[in-house]
């Protein structure tokens, strides 16, 4: 019996790569990567292509969403806003307004077109930056939106398997599943050697440290 097809939102970060490893166990793979004018876009695309070579998905879609850079409102896309190195109070400046909603909309559209049954996304609400579109309530609401906004015979469900895992647990799970962390990229600032100072680098470094596993990436400062 042929396995169902699953769309995996693959940014090239460690969480989405672990999601790909999870999805691979039970589904045929379709990888979706979105370029939206983020400062690390070129490096993320390079890592995405390497992850495609590793996982060998059946289908690949690289979507362009340049309007997110035009909309602005986030230090990830705005040239006027620097990537912070200190912890911020409240929702951080790296939050891109409704980014996951936009990404999931693209994923749902593609999933319906190609007959995929699942959408995997690596959101996490335990060790995360406080983004509102990474919460369980958001995923549940979006699942309902997909149900309401697709054909009656379409059956697509979002899977967020890392939602309640700590970053340490995500690292250990990735190692267990053989996730190629050396092909991933987490840094918000740099595109050659990870800075080790931005929030994403700090979360990643802490996760590997707590897991007792060496991070295969090199850092400027840690």
Describe this structure in words.
With 222 residues, the protein is α/β, with parallel strands linked by helices. It has a single domain, classed as HUPs (Rossmann fold, 3-Layer(aba) Sandwich). 39% of the residues lie in helices and 11% in strands. It contains seven helices and five strands, in the order βαβαβααβαβαα. The chain has helices at 14-26, 41-55, 67-71, 99-114, 136-149, 167-177, 199-211, and strands at 5-9, 28-35, 59-64, 118-120, 157-159. Strands 3-2-1-4-5 form a five-stranded parallel β-sheet, with helices on both faces. α1 (14-26) packs across α6 and α6 (167-177) crosses α7. The protein is globular, with a radius of gyration of 17 Å. The termini are far apart. The mean pLDDT is 95.
Helix-strand blueprint:
Elements: E1 5-9, H1 14-26, E2 28-35, H2 41-55, E3 59-64, H3 67-71, H4 99-114, E4 118-120, H5 136-149, E5 157-159, H6 167-177, H7 199-211
Parallel strand pairs: 1-2, 1-4, 2-3, 4-5
Task: Give a quick summary of the entry.
The protein has 222 residues and is α/β, with parallel strands linked by helices. The chain has a single domain, classed as Rossmann fold (3-Layer(aba) Sandwich). It contains seven helices and five strands.
Task: Give me some keywords for this one.
222 residues, Rossmann fold, single chain, 39% helix, alpha/beta, 7 helices, five-stranded parallel sheet
């Amino acid at each position: 019996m042929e396995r169902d097809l699953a769309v995996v939102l693959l940014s090239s970060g460690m969480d989405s790569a672990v999601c790909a490893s999870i999805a691979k166990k039970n589904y045929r793979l379709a990888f979706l990567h979105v370029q939206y004018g983020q400062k690390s876009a070129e490096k993320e695309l390079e890592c995405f292509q390497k992850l495609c070579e590793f996982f060998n998905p059946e289908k690949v879609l690289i979507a362009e969403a340049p309007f997110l850079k035009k909309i602005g409102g986030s230090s990830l896309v705005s040239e006027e806003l620097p990537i912070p190195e200190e912890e911020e109070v409240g929702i951080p400046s790296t939050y891109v307004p409704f980014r996951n909603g936009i990404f999931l909309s693209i994923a749902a559209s593609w999933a319906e077109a190609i007959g995929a049954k699942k959408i995997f996304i690596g959101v996490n609400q335990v060790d995360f930056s406080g983004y509102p579109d990474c919460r369980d309530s958001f995923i549940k609401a979006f699942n309902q939106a997909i149900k309401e906004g697709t054909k009656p015979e379409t059956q697509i469900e979002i899977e967020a398997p890392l939602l309640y895992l700590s970053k340490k647990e995500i690292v250990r799970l990735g190692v267990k599943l053989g996730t190629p962390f050396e092909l991933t990229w987490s840094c918000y600032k740099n595109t050659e050697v990870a800075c080790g100072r931005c929030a994403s680098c700090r979360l990643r470094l802490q996760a590997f440290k707590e897991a007792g596993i060496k991070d295969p990436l090199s850092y400027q400062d840690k």
